[in-house]
Specification:
The protein has about 575 residues and is of the alpha+beta class. The protein is built from 20 helices and 23 strands. Strands 13, 14, 15, 16, 17, 18, 19 and 22 form an 8-stranded mixed beta sheet that branches. Strands 3, 4, 5, 6, 7 and 8 form a 6-stranded mixed beta sheet that branches. The structure holds adenosine monophosphate (AMP).
């Protein structure tokens, strides 16, 4: 098929504003193509050449296109640059250049869909020495055989600027009308696409094998499944009502969602947008190899940053530093991660997506060997509002974004690619950012494990309440200490060690070691949250809750200049909580 036919359609789609008209146009184009052409055209219409998860991007730099146009026209590069500046669209510049040239030369081949696609594919996959020159030649070859209109769209395609608004969903609509006998088969097609989100593959299958072929599409290891998404409700009461009086609730970890595929022991990781992010997390790959028992499985999890020394969870911002292409090993040491598994979609040849959640969760519990790096998302079963409310508060006070309530009904399937009320998120509405440092008193400590067996795992820190002359706990802090600090701490605290809690320390937590309030250290946290376990400002904001500093980190400063009664006060923390309150969007 001539490439011109695709280009004509693109032009028509651009002129059409209605979705239905666009689907009609697509449908008639699709019907006139062979399966192989259709397979290629559905990518080209979106300015792509392969499904997104394969990571093959066109993205040719504007500069390279300018060079090609300069060579093609014999005009100086500067003239092309000026034309671009003037028109603001390299596609239009290409059109103009080709139009002028056509007046001079008469001979050129007609471009076919196949040739355009194959050349673009080559351009996207070339790498290494000499590849720029080769790309330039390939582009020149295409442009010199293109009509002015074809040049306009070719250039928009290669530079990633073809923004037609023909999404995969519109293509599915057109496919079901063209080959499956109407709109009513759209759900079948969509299910196939959700399990195998490669629009070229689905298109080819629809035309070759029709409904029966599409129905057979299943899970393929190594091809990401479109992820299930959650709805949102405003409080625990609404959630329980919607879920028929009972549900499961899980911590909603604040990290990055990962879908992991294990195939004969080999692991691939996909992001929520289905990009292959395996290279980014070699540590997760290794831990899943060890801690996920089956040789073949697909599981989903949230990946969170952990403190390298204390093992405490760290805020999302720290995890984001792992998003990079270079120095991965170095960042892996600086920002280690853990994964919290919450679903299983496939095990040993069996599709689990259509099984109810309780069954999937049980399977998940069976197939992992829990460890510090790989563990299950914390979960409880709930049938009353109060328990759900408490779990939510506990989650928030532990630094979570909130909770995920999950239906436990018969039909609580994993609905690939869909947002439904089978999962409902309950997020805290506000967070109170903490940007100042605070000076807190060491009142207790917890025994260290592993590398920290000889010292403390974390310190229990308190703020001062001058009115009652007592110290009230506000956080556990195990982050920010150097090895030297850790060695020195037991000696430093020895003179103040007590057998039990000091009478002036108010705590609901049972520490392993207790100290007389004496030493003040400077800390910085990420935010202040309500907490059922800390006593600072208890009952001030909410009955039964105190305030906690989340994600505290020792700054390295021992405030030897401060006596414990000069530490940050409870009122100051309350004030910070109230002033820095910000609404969480999204
Ligand atoms: P949101 O991004 O606010 O729509 O919330 C959905 C996201 O929460 C998912 O995509 C996951 O990345 C994340 N998440 C964290 N913990 C869980 C959990 N236990 N179950 C499901 N999703 C979770």
């Amino acid at each position: 098929m001539r490439f011109e036919k695709v280009v004509d359609l693109i032009e028509q789609v651009e002129a059409e504003s209605g979705r239905l008209a666009m689907i009609d146009l697509l449908k008639s184009l699709f019907k006139s193509m062979t399966p192989e052409e259709l397979n290629k055209a559905v990518y080209l219409l979106q300015g792509r050449i392969r499904p997104e998860y394969e990571g093959i991007e066109l993205g040719i730099a504007d500069k390279l296109v300018e060079r090609a146009l300069s060579q093609l026209s014999g005009l100086p590069l500067e003239t092309i640059e000026n034309m671009y500046a003037d028109k603001g669209d390299l596609g239009l510049v290409a059109e103009e250049v080709v139009k002028r040239k056509k007046q001079k030369t008469l001979f050129s081949r007609t471009l076919t869909v196949e040739e355009v696609y194959n050349t673009l594919y080559k351009m996207a996959t070339l790498a290494g020495k000499g590849s720029i020159k080769y790309k330039l030649d390939l582009l020149l070859n295409l442009l010199s055989n293109a009509s002015p209109k074809e040049a306009r769209y070719l250039v928009r395609m290669v530079t990633g600027k073809l923004r037609l608004g023909v999404g995969d969903m519109s293509i599915l609509d057109a496919l079901s009308e063209a080959f499956l006998g109407g709109k009513s088969y759209r759900p079948v097609l969509e299910r196939a696409y959700n399990l195998h989100p490669d629009i070229g593959y689905i298109a080819q299958l629809a035309v070759k094998e029709g409904l029966e072929g599409v129905k057979k599409v299943g899970i393929t290891l190594g091809i990401p499944i479109r992820m299930a998404l959650a709805e949102r409700l405003k409080d625990p009461e609404e959630i329980l009502e919607k879920m028929g009086g009972r549900c499961a609730a899980e911590y909603k970890y604040d990290g990055e969602r990962i879908q992991a595929h294990k195939d004969d022991g080999k692991i691939k990781l996909f992001s929520r947008r289905l990009e292959d992010i395996t290279y980014q997390y070699p540590d997760v790959v290794e831990s899943l190899k060890k801690h996920l028992k089956p040789e073949r499985a697909i599981v989903e999890m949230e990946c969170v940053a952990v403190d390298p020394v204390s093992g405490e969870l760290r805020p999302f911002q720290e995890l984001m530093q792992r998003r990079r292409k270079y120095s991965i090993e170095e960042m892996m040491k600086k920002i280690p991660v853990a994964v919290k598994l919450f679903d299983v979609l496939y095990v040993g040849g069996e599709d689990y997506t259509l099984k109810p959640y309780p069954q999937r969760r049980r399977k998940l519990e069976e197939i992992i060997i829990p460890s510090e790096e790989v563990d299950l998302a914390r979960k409880i079963d709930v049938s009353d509002v109060e328990t759900l409310e408490k779990f939510f508060e506990e989650a928030v006070s532990e630094g979570m974004e909130g909770i995920m309530a999950k239906s436990v009904d018969e039909d609580s399937i994993y609905e690939a690619g869909a947002r439904s009320y089978r999962w409902v998120k309950l997020k805290r509405e506000y967070k109170s950012e903490l940007t100042d440092t605070v000076d807190l008193v060491i009142v207790g400590a917890f025994a260290g494990r592993g590398k920290r067996a000889e010292t403390y795992g974390a310190l229990l820190l308190a703020a001062y309440d001058p009115e009652n002359d007592v110290f009230k706990t506000v956080c556990k802090c195990g982050t920010g200490f150097t090895d030297e600090d850790l060695q020195k701490l037991p000696q430093m605290l020895k003179p103040y060690t007590l057998k039990e809690r000091h009478p002036k320390v108010i705590s609901k937590i049972d520490a392993d070691y207790w100290f007389e309030p004496a030493i003040v250290i400077e800390c910085i946290g990420a935010e202040i949250t309500l907490s059922p376990i800390h006593t600072c400002a208890i009952d001030e904001v909410k009955k039964g809750s105190g305030l906690a500093i989340r994600f505290p980190r020792f700054t390295g400063r021992y405030r030897e200049d401060k006596s414990p009664r000069e530490a940050t006060t409870e009122d100051e923390i309350l004030e910070m909580y109230r002033q820095k309150m910000i609404k969480i969007e999204g």
